[in-house]
Design goal:
Elements lengths: L13 H12 L6 E3 H8 L3 H13 L3 E4 L2 E4 L4 H9 L3 H16 L2 E8 L2 E8 L15 E3 L4 H7 L4 H10 L13 H14 L2 E4 L6 E9 L5 E10 L5 H22 L6
Antiparallel strand pairs: 1-3, 2-3, 4-5, 4-9, 5-6, 7-8, 8-9
Helix pairs in contact: 2-3, 5-9
Length: about 260
């Protein structure tokens, strides 16, 4: 298991962590903020937040317009470096787009980041499935997505237990599981059967199926899914027609991709 530094460790650089925290404070709900707003969102004092904002401004990652601060397009270079260093995503994107073209449904690749899944690839169908717009970079609770349950099922037992100990089950809809025991059962089921199905647990009418995808050396690349509207596609169609297409995609990727780094 990887040894992760914690704040206070000798090699932990707090300034780097704080700078990234300032960048992450900006989002679709707050694209432009004052110094006071940044300080509040990052739980920093104003003097510290000001130093980081001015440093990021000097480096070209922050634009300043009077009292307001906002991200600049230079921030995209960070994401581009991540995407370009993982060339297997070009392969997966191609097949996700094929699924959308064939079925008229959205298909995505996510990775696990702490207690959330992060969308790293997306092929969107014309119809909208959720109240929020899903795109690359979107984060959703791992416990309440089919891809999240697939990825949680790949965790070592100790890490899965740590997740279950800290997660707070939430009734997003009347169909949501609301106990840790029920959530653990769904995650273990996803691990054992090799796929997960989610039926309107995060958003009413949203139904999805997901499978893990691996490189041929065994590296876990993420989870891929097909998401659809429950009123349009039955559970039977989801598992009997859509699931085999995802499994075939995962097999194809495994035969083409050597490792998670290429």
């Amino acid at each position: 298991m990887e040894n992760i530094l914690k704040p206070g460790d000798r090699d932990f650089v707090g300034a780097v962590a704080s700078g990234l925290q300032v960048l992450q404070a900006f989002g679709s709900d707050c694209p432009r903020m004052t110094l006071s707003e940044v300080a509040a969102r990052t739980a920093m004092d104003r003097a510290k937040a000001r130093r980081f904002l001015l440093t990021l401004h000097a480096l070209g990652y922050i634009h300043r317009d009077g009292r307001l601060f906002e991200l600049t397009p230079r921030v995209l270079q960070l994401g581009y470096a991540y995407q370009s260093s993982n060339q297997h995503r070009d392969v997966i994107q191609h097949y996700l787009q094929n699924i959308t073209a064939e079925l008229g449904e959205s298909s995505s690749l996510t990775v696990l980041d702490n207690d959330e899944v992060v969308y790293v690839l997306r092929s969107a169908a014309p119809h909208r499935l959720m109240g929020i717009t899903l795109s690359v970079g979107t984060r959703l609770p791992a416990a309440y997505t089919s891809m999240g349950r697939v990825l949680l099922g790949q965790l070592p037992e100790a890490e899965l237990q740590a997740f279950l100990d800290r997660v707070q089950p939430e009734a997003h809809t009347p169909s949501s599981v609301t106990t840790r025991a029920a959530l653990q059962e769904r995650i273990v089921q996803a691990r054992e059967q090799g796929y997960a199905v989610l039926d309107q647990e995060l958003d009413l009418a949203l139904r999805s199926v997901a499978v893990p995808v691996f490189a041929n050396n065994g590296d876990l690349l993420g989870a891929i899914n097909i998401s659809t509207n429950a009123a349009r596609v039955s559970m039977e169609v989801l598992t009997q027609d859509y699931l085999p297409k995802l499994q075939a995609l995962a097999d194809t990727v495994r035969s083409l991709v050597r490792s998670s780094f290429g």
